[in-house]
Write a structure and sequence with these properties.
With 147 residues, the protein is mainly alpha-helical. It is 63% helix and 0% strand. α2 (67-85) packs antiparallel against α3 and α2 runs parallel beside α4 (111-129).
C-alpha cells in the first residue's frame, strides 16, 4: 500500500494538513483581527521612523551626546594627547591633559560613554604611553570636573 503513494502525493498531503492546522490556530487566536481585516477596519501598525532633525534630550544635561562625538573625542585623545606624550609623560601629566580635554564633554555623565572612554584610556594609555590607569582613578578625575 505504501508503494502506491508517491513523494509528491505525500508532500501535497503534508502541505494541505499544515495549512489547515495553521488556519485553525489563526482563527483560534486572531479571530477578531481576521474579521476586522476582512471588513476593512483593521489597520496594520506602522512604526514611525525617527526624524533625524529631532534631537532626543537627556534629562541630566539637555544635550545629545552621540557616538560620533565620542569617536571624535577618542580619536583626538589618541592622537593629540597619548601619541604626542609617548613614553615620556607621567600619569599626572596625562591625567591633567585628559581632564582639560574632557572638561566640556557632557557625555561623561552618561554611564555608557564614561565606561567606553575609561576603557579606551586604560587600554591605550598602557599600550602607547606605558601608563596604567585604573577605572577608579579616572572616575575620581571625572567627578572633579565642573558640570
Amino acid at each position: 500500500m505504501l508503494k502506491s503513494i508517491s513523494w509528491t502525493d505525500y508532500f501535497t498531503a503534508v502541505a494541505i494538513l499544515a495549512a489547515i492546522w495553521y488556519g485553525i490556530i489563526a482563527l483560534a487566536f486572531y479571530r477578531k483581527e481576521i474579521s476586522d481585516f476582512l471588513k476593512g477596519k483593521y489597520k496594520f501598525p506602522i512604526r514611525k521612523k525617527a526624524n533625524p532633525a529631532e534631537v532626543e534630550t537627556n534629562e541630566d544635561n539637555k544635550e545629545d551626546h552621540s557616538f560620533e562625538e565620542l569617536e571624535g573625542i577618542v580619536t583626538d585623545i589618541r592622537h593629540s594627547i597619548l601619541e604626542e606624550a609617548g613614553n615620556k609623560a607621567n600619569k599626572d601629566e596625562l591625567l591633567t591633559q585628559l581632564m582639560n580635554r574632557l572638561a566640556n564633554y557632557g557625555g561623561l555623565r552618561q554611564p555608557a560613554f564614561r565606561v567606553a572612554l575609561n576603557n579606551f584610556i586604560i587600554q591605550y594609555g598602557e599600550s602607547i604611553c606605558g601608563v596604567a590607569f585604573s577605572e577608579e582613578e579616572l572616575d575620581e578625575a571625572w567627578e572633579t570636573l565642573p558640570r
